[in-house]
Amino acid sequence: MGRVFKYGDDVNTDVLFPGKHTYTVSDPLEMAQHALEDLDPAFAKEVKPGDIIVAGSNFGCGSSREQAVLALKYAGVTAVIAESFARIYYRNCINSGLPALALPEAVSALNDGDEAEADLAAGVVKTSKGDFSFAPLPPEVQAILDAGGLIEYLRKRFAR
Known about the structure:
It is a single chain. By secondary structure, the chain is an alpha/beta fold. The protein has a single domain (2-157), classed as Aconitase, domain 4 (Alpha-Beta Barrel). The protein is 34% helix and 18% strand. The protein has 8 helices and 7 strands; from the N terminus they run E-H-H-H-E-H-E-H-E-H-E-E-E-H-H. The chain has helices spanning 13-16, 28-32, 43-46, 67-75, 87-96, 104-109, 139-147, 150-157, and strands spanning 2-6, 52-55, 79-82, 100-102, 115-119, 124-127, 130-133. The protein has a 7-stranded mixed sheet with strand order 4-3-2-1-5-6-7. Helix 4 packs across helix 5 (87-96). It is globular, with a radius of gyration of 15 Å.
């Protein structure tokens, strides 16, 4: 299980990965060092592999920057659970291999510092406050996530 980092509504891509770094930082590991720095300056220092972000509605609104997903993924975040996602951000999560789960009941129950784990195969988020089920992901989406993202999925699928 990982630690929950909980945030509110309308967490935008400029907060997830500050725009001031968009054209100066291209290495995903360096992006991770700037994840959420303007909203939660301690996040990049405290996050550990396996941790989960939980947030309110419209998570990832704003510009369509892929860095806003990569910064979280390379920081060690294994899933983002929110009440709802901005459409492009949600797709960028799938393309980058970061599970994004719309699960309002889990968001309501979880607090910052709780423990949780997303079991995609079982369709459940296991927490210290109980388990929260979600519909199985479509097989195509699960395959992309299993491969680590769309590019890796395509490489494996079309390798000759």
